[in-house]
């Protein structure tokens, strides 16, 4: 399993979203509070954001997040109105390599998968960044388009009843997410919206998204619909 977080709103630093919160991804990499499967997320991490020209930029590693002093030094200087980051707990048998860590990208979107899926139900795609299930799933989602995210997740879930398919995606001006087998929470405020596998602090305004739902965030508008 994995933990992930995304932000859309006024510019914030990557550190504010990933490293600074008392229960942020840094802490979730070794002590998640709501993770249903696995105890730690020490098999890699990745952080992505969109620059002023709307181009997605990524920093990924196969090491634990808590051990990267260079990222801790640079993250406060990386600011964006749209950020997506994740820490990874590798599925047994899957390789541990930087390209296996989210966020994955097609050059327009950043995408993270919290869960697992049988690769046998996924069509092979030469554009997958890694052989891990999450990368192959991301390639399928990119190929079909993010506007079809709900349909794609539903179809894959029907093919693999044991799949867990929590997806989080961003394109610089929009966030999309699905809940399918694991947790997702949302925090809305005057400056923007956070979507996260679990709350990164104890703010009472966090709300939980029900299972098997699609979340679509555009500017200050949020739509939550059943899958």
UniProtKB/TrEMBL annotation:
Pfam family membership, one: GATase_6
Lineage top rank: taxon: Bacteria
PANTHER family given in the database record: GAMMA-GLUTAMYL-HERCYNYLCYSTEINE SULFOXIDE HYDROLASE, GLUTAMINE AMIDOTRANSFERASE DUG3-RELATED
Gene3D superfamilies in the cross-refs: Glutamine Phosphoribosylpyrophosphate, subunit 1, domain 1
Glycoprotein listed as a keyword: no
Pathway linked to the protein: Amino-acid biosynthesis; ergothioneine biosynthesis
InterPro entries in alphabetical order: EgtC (IPR017808), EgtC_Actinobacteria (IPR032889), Gamma-glu_amide_hydrolase (IPR052373), GATase_2_dom (IPR017932), Ntn_hydrolases_N (IPR029055)
Assigned EC number: 3.5.1.118
Annotated Glutamine amidotransferase type-2 domain residues: 2-227
The protein's role, per its UniProt record: Catalyzes the hydrolysis of the gamma-glutamyl amide bond of hercynyl-gamma-L-glutamyl-L-cysteine sulfoxide to produce hercynylcysteine sulfoxide, a step in the biosynthesis pathway of ergothioneine.
SUPFAM superfamilies: N-terminal nucleophile aminohydrolases (Ntn hydrolases) (SSF56235)
Catalyzed chemical reaction(s): gamma-L-glutamyl-hercynylcysteine S-oxide + H2O = S-(hercyn-2-yl)-L-cysteine S-oxide + L-glutamate
Species of the source: Mycolicibacterium goodii
Position of the signal peptide: none
Keyword annotations: Glutamine amidotransferase, Hydrolase
Protein name: Gamma-glutamyl-hercynylcysteine sulfoxide hydrolase
Gene of this entry: egtC
Keyword Hydrolase: yes
């Amino acid at each position: 399993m994995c933990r992930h977080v995304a932000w859309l709103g006024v510019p914030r630093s990557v550190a504010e979203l990933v490293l600074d919160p008392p229960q942020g991804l840094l802490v979730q990499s070794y002590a998640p509070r709501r993770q249903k499967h696995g105890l730690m997320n020490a098999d890699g991490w990745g952080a992505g954001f969109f620059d002023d020209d709307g181009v997605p930029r990524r920093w990924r590693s196969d090491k634990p997040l808590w051990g990267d002093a260079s990222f801790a030094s640079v993250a406060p200087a990386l600011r964006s109105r749209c950020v997506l980051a994740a820490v990874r707990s590798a599925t047994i048998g899957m390789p541990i390599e930087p390209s296996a860590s989210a966020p994955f990208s097609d050059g327009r979107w950043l995408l993270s998968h919290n869960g697992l899926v049988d690769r046998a139900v996924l069509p092979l795609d030469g554009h997958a960044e890694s052989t891990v299930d999450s990368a192959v799933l991301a390639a399928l989602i990119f190929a079909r388009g993010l506007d079809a995210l709900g349909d794609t997740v539903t179809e894959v879930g029907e093919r693999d009843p044991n799949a867990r398919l929590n997806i989080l995606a961003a394109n610089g001006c929009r966030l999309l997410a699905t809940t399918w087998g694991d947790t997702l929470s949302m925090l809305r405020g005057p400056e923007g919206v956070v979507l996260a596998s679990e709350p990164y602090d104890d703010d009472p305004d966090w709300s939980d998204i029900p299972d098997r739902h699609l979340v679509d965030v555009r500017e200050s508008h949020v739509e939550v619909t059943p899958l």
